[in-house]
Structure to design on (942 residues):
């Protein structure tokens, strides 16, 4: 029996390697060896389900544009692909003074922009501190193409003043006070007060560096024209079909073994919108990676990958918790849900594990039984969300609070509607389960109203719905990003007035104070401490009904190397390389 | 004749104007705020307001409509400044109004219709339409060629073998072809031929006419096969039915009997005498179908991920991208009108009675 089994395994290994060879032969043929067994050359093919909106750094508002732009542009700092820690990029190193407000950046020498027609001779010139000043001043300048002011607002000295002075396209009389050029390769940034998130902002897309010449020449066309310093250049864009990125031969980066980066010759991004079609293309070997799997196939794929057999057994599966949390929101200032006991009763009445296992087929990292910040994300220093007392299903507590809220056994509870968008039916399935559980556990009836996303957004911002679906995907790896939309100082007193981003209109002065303290903290440890206290307070008030934390699945052809997954799908193709499957075995 | 053409053109313009009004108001009834679909999570209020103002969304609806019509019209009035000159690329006819300060003077200009830029990507709508037109054009043409050729062939065969098993089979299949919803057929065909049998057929379930790889642009004709067949199925079925009934009609005429009595060859009778006369209704049907296919095969383009007018319109509706929705709708209306005018003129030349009415 054992012999027979091993024979099958051996056969399947031989078979799978054969089929992969066939798929990979095209790309493998041009590979050249580099130090440390790595390989130069090849094309990496991936798919995105949505098309890019705009890759002009100040106007990047969607994840897809960010992922493309971060191959072409670079900032002073960069996220580390494996753990999302910060590392130097265009900055060689930096120092922070004792007051934690003056940051001095020494810039990397010998970094050149991509060759482009915007330069006088078509050759990319060297990057200097003038470019940093130009781009950072642009961030502090009002313009309809600038959606990035928040990275410096209230933080950088003189930013608010400059921004106000440039309203309506006016030219500012003075420069931004906090940006100072020391020499060609040194720049100093001065803050109003210490900020725990400032360095993160310097790795975000808004602070990518581009040359003045490009913006002056291309203007609005910077939406798909990119001149940066990154490892790849845009070689071709076919709207809605594909984007072709070619290696920047003059790229300044080298890896720890001394290999000149990047390894890949080409990154080809396709835009197939249907997930099932994408999976078919991946199986045919036309794609090297697939991010997010179609829900219907997840159980099959997980089983086959784990057992290393079947159609999917030959691929590598990367799983990681994502910086995304799903929940339902209450309108905290509304007539029904301004009752804290009622919100708590709802939170205790939901069996989240059942939703995750039975409705989502396990497609999620964990039931959200702690805070809004997902589990296992921020490890150094540790942001320990398990210290937050969240809500698990508890029939007794649910009954106790619903009685305390004035609706014993659900009696007298008004009719309410849960508004949601469908998102491939997943949201609807979850909402139906919530509806069922509320009926079973609280004897409360809710109705579902499925509306288009645009309408949901309008109703949420305008306070037109009491109970609505929400989800949060963080932009950068910091718990602050999960807490900022609970900040209550900007919430209008009148429910009819628009409120954004705090759409549940949660207000707690103690939370606001702790959140602000966290922002101003001098060290990350101190900031995390404040944020954690703030989050504990917020969760105790139950402004939302947390459901589950997301998990990212990435299926990879086995010849792709050095491409670690991370919680925010930050992708850095400069270190990725492909191997020939033959050498791999 | 010239008067006839002129009246048709005028009529076309009125239809276009109606289309603008209807789409404009439908779009503005849709819930949702385009700016919140465009802006980033942390975009501050003043930038949001600036965007709203820039798009003209803060003005009352009738004013927005007038502004849009002014942008569209080849003859229009604008404030005279460099920004507008760049934006509209107009040719100044004459200026009016007194110049108090720079930019207050108005000009009356001639220009190409300006369809604005996409809210979402900032791309010019004219460019979007031109880029997507090609895919739709080739898809529609390929589908119609397929449908016409096989439709007539099958129709003739069925009529020649009336009431045989072959005839009944074809009629039944064509009824199925007419009634099957295109998105179901699309998904089915993509799945079966583009995936399960793709090793044998060598076809893809999605793809474009032009694929861009490392070596540049490459024509991939095989990618058009499945979407064109799917799109052509319904016209094919209708053409089969039309050809069959027209042929049966013609074949029972006296002159066919005379031709037979003369001793002409069977093939010559069928092709030269019968088919030629039976084709009239078919040609009318084909030209009508072609017009509607050119307008974008919404479902087929979506299912096969085909880049064309249909898919770009659907996406724009989702994202509240008003200029794109407006632009593509107007384009579709324009195509319909042109083809209809063309067909009318064709009829008028062939049949003088049409002109006299």
């Amino acid at each position: 029996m054992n012999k027979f089994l091993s024979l099958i395994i051996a056969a399947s290994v031989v078979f799978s390697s054969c089929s992969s060879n066939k798929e990979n032969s095209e790309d493998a043929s041009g590979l050249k060896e580099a130090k440390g067994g790595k390989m130069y050359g090849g094309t990496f093919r991936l798919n995105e389900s949505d098309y890019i909106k705009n890759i002009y750094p100040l106007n990047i508002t969607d994840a897809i544009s960010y992922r493309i732009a971060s191959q072409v542009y670079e900032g002073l700092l960069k996220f580390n692909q494996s753990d999302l820690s910060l590392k130097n990029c265009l900055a060689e190193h930096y120092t922070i003074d004792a007051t934690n407000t003056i940051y001095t950046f020494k810039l990397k020498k010998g970094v050149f922009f991509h060759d482009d027609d915007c330069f006088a001779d078509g050759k990319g010139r060297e990057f200097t501190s003038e470019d940093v000043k130009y781009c950072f001043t642009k961030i502090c300048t009002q313009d309809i193409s600038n959606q990035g002011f928040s990275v410096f607002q209230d933080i950088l000295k003189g930013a608010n003043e400059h921004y106000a002075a440039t309203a309506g396209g006016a030219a500012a009389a003075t420069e931004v006070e906090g940006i100072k050029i020391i020499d060609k390769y040194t720049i100093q940034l001065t803050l109003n007060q210490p900020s725990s998130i400032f360095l993160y902002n310097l790795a975000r897309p808004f602070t990518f560096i581009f040359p003045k010449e490009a913006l002056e020449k291309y203007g609005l066309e910077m939406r798909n024209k990119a001149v940066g310093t990154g490892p790849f250049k845009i070689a071709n864009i076919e709207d809605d079909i594909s984007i072709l990125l070619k290696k920047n031969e003059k790229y300044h980066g080298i890896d720890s073994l001394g290999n000149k980066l990047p390894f890949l010759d080409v990154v080809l991004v396709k835009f197939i919108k249907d997930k099932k079609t994408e999976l078919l293309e991946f199986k045919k070997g036309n794609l090297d990676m697939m991010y997010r799997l179609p829900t219907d196939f997840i159980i099959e794929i997980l089983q086959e990958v784990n057992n290393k057999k079947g159609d999917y057994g030959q691929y590598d599966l990367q799983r990681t918790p994502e910086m995304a949390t799903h929940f339902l929101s209450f309108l905290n200032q509304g007539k029904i849900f301004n009752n804290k006991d009622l919100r708590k009763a709802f939170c205790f009445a939901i069996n989240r594990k059942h939703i995750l296992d039975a409705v989502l087929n396990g497609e999620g990292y964990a039931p959200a039984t702690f805070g809004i910040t997902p589990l296992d994300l921020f490890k150094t220093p540790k942001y320990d969300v398990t210290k937050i007392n969240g809500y698990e299903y508890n029939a007794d507590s649910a009954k106790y609070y619903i009685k305390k809220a004035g609706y014993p056994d659900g009696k007298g509870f008004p009719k309410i509607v849960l508004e949601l968008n469908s998102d491939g039916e997943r949201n609807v399935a979850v909402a139906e389960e919530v509806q069922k559980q509320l009926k079973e556990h609280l004897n409360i009836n809710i109705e579902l109203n499925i509306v288009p996303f645009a309408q949901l957004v309008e109703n949420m911002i305008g306070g037109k719905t009491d109970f609505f679906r929400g989800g949060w995907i963080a932009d950068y790896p910091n718990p602050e990003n999960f807490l900022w939309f609970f900040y209550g100082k900007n919430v209008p007193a009148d429910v009819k007035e628009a409120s954004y981003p705090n759409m549940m209109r949660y207000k707690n002065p103690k939370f606001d104070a702790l959140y602000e303290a966290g922002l101003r903290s001098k060290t990350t440890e101190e900031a995390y401490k404040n944020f954690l206290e703030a989050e504990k307070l917020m969760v105790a008030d139950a402004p939302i009904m947390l459901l589950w934390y997301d998990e990212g699945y990435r299926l990879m052809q086995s010849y792709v190397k050095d491409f670690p997954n991370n919680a925010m799908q930050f992708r850095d193709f400069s270190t990725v390389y492909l191997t020939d499957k033959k050498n791999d075995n | 004749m010239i008067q006839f053409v002129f009246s048709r053109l005028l009529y076309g313009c009125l239809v276009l104007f109606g289309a603008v009004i209807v789409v404009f108001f439908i779009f503005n009834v849709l819930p949702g705020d385009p700016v919140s679909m465009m802006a980033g999570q942390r975009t501050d209020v003043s930038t949001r307001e600036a965007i709203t103002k820039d798009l003209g969304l803060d003005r009352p609806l009738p004013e927005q409509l007038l502004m849009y019509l002014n942008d569209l019209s080849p003859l229009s009035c604008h404030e005279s400044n460099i920004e507008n000159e760049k934006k509209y690329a107009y040719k100044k006819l004459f200026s009016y109004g007194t110049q108090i300060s720079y930019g207050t003077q108005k000009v009356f200009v001639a220009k190409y219709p300006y369809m604005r830029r996409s809210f979402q990507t900032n791309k010019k709508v004219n460019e979007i339409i031109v880029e997507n037109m090609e895919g739709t054009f080739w898809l529609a043409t390929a589908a119609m060629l397929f449908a016409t050729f096989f439709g007539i062939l099958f129709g003739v065969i069925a009529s020649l073998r009336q009431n045989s098993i072959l005839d009944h089979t074809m009629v039944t299949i064509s009824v199925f072809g007419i009634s099957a919803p295109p998105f179901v057929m699309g998904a089915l065909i993509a799945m079966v031929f583009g995936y399960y049998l793709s090793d044998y057929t060598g076809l893809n379930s999605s793809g474009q006419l032009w694929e861009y790889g490392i070596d540049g642009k490459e024509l991939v004709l095989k990618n058009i096969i499945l979407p064109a067949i799917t799109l052509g199925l319904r016209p094919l079925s209708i053409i089969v039915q039309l050809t069959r009934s027209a042929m049966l009609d013609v074949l029972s005429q006296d002159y066919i009997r005379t031709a037979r009595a003369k001793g002409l060859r069977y093939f010559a009778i069928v092709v030269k005498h019968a088919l030629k006369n039976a084709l009239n209704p078919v040609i009318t049907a084909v030209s009508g179908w072609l017009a509607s296919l050119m307008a974008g095969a919404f479902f087929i383009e979506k299912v096969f991920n085909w880049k064309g007018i249909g898919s770009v319109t659907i996406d724009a509706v989702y994202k509240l991208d008003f200029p794109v929705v407006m632009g593509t709708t107007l384009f579709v209306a324009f195509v319909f009108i042109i083809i209809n005018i063309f067909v009318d003129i064709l009829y008028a030349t062939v049949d003088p009675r049409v002109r006299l009415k």
Remarks:
- The two ends of chain A are 26 Å apart (CA to CA).
